[in-house]
Design goal:
3-stranded antiparallel β-sheet; alpha+beta; 6-stranded antiparallel β-sheet; single chain; 3 domains
């Protein structure tokens, strides 16, 4: 069995800190599987039926089926020669993974009307970059009722003072882990070790960026290089540049802390705050979904890599 000894602070110690999941998940510690499914509103089944055309002519011979929620009848996807996985089976796999890895599943939730199910296992103690600045790290397991999507494992880092979440890609060497693949102890050990290494690099990067002082002019250059239009004044730059600069200048939550005040880390947090809470208003759940695994996640990762290239490498 793999074991996670990275936890220097227990989940019990951080309960109630904030709702990083935007109320798309619930805490499920010390619940039975049935209680977890009920609490997360996942106590329903996936059913399938054949297509019906024209005058109610049912093509029984077709291998293609329509998958839908048994409780609401809501459409999920079209399956071809696929047996639907039930929520109980998916969450059971999450538990198997956590048990093998020596982690405890702490949250269970769903996105996109239950098409995607995810769980979070509290991964690490918080990083203390300066007094009052904490970041919680979770291992996120996602699976889906949509065709072509397998069990995905990644890290999610949440800066607590501002609830700025950032998706962290897990890598083994130079390779990104997109799906778990074969479910066995050796694979879980490999992935958990990679997650530990990724988390260590993430923590070291944050600490280093927090110690690097930058000027406002440097902040403008970095923001325009990543998101803006070269040669144009700030007043003519895209919204992301203008808002992130204001957040860096002092409007951002936690921007007054030593870790963020006029530092490269503070600039990174101004960008993560923008993509977590500003930009195009798509609603809290859609924003979180994009932060977890969408365009907002991609933009934040690229900007962090840019800062690492400029100030660390």
């Amino acid at each position: 069995m793999a074991t996670s000894n990275y936890q220097a602070e227990s989940f019990q110690d951080i309960r109630g800190r904030n709702a990083w999941h935007r109320d798309t998940a619930v805490e499920v510690v010390d619940m039975t599987l049935d209680q977890q499914l009920t609490a997360a509103k996942l106590d329903w089944k996936v059913e399938t039926s054949s297509f019906i055309y024209g005058d109610d002519y049912q093509h029984e011979e077709l291998k293609t089926q329509v998958a839908y929620r048994a409780d609401t009848g809501a459409f999920i996807d079209v399956y071809t020669s696929r047996k639907p996985w039930q929520n109980r089976e998916i969450v059971g796999h999450f538990h198997d993974f956590c048990n093998e890895a020596g982690l405890k599943l702490t949250h269970l939730g769903n996105l996109d009307g239950g098409r995607t199910i995810y769980a979070a296992a509290y991964m690490s103690a918080t990083d203390v970059l300066s007094v009052g600045d904490f970041t919680d790290h979770y291992l996120i397991l996602r699976d889906s009722h949509i065709n072509g999507r397998g069990l995905n494992v990644s890290l999610f880092s949440n800066r607590c003072i501002c609830t700025n979440g950032m998706h962290v890609t897990i890598r083994v060497g130079s390779k990104t882990i997109a799906h778990l693949g074969e479910f066995n102890a050796a694979r879980i050990n490999e992935l958990l070790d990679a997650a530990m290494s990724t988390l260590k690099v993430k923590s070291q990067t944050s600490e280093t960026l927090a110690a690097i002082a930058i000027t406002r002019e440097e902040a403008v250059i970095n923001l325009i290089s990543a998101f803006g239009i070269a040669g144009e004044p700030v007043s003519e730059q895209p919204k992301v540049v203008q808002v992130a600069l204001k957040l860096f200048d002092g409007d951002g939550k936690g921007s007054e802390l030593l870790s963020s005040y006029n530092t490269a880390y503070g600039l990174l947090q101004s960008v993560t705050e923008y993509f977590n809470w500003h930009g195009r208003n798509t609603g809290a759940v859609k924003q979180f979904q994009s932060v977890l695994n969408g365009s907002r996640a991609t933009q934040m990762q690229k900007f962090e890599q840019q800062l690492v290239g400029v100030y660390i490498n």
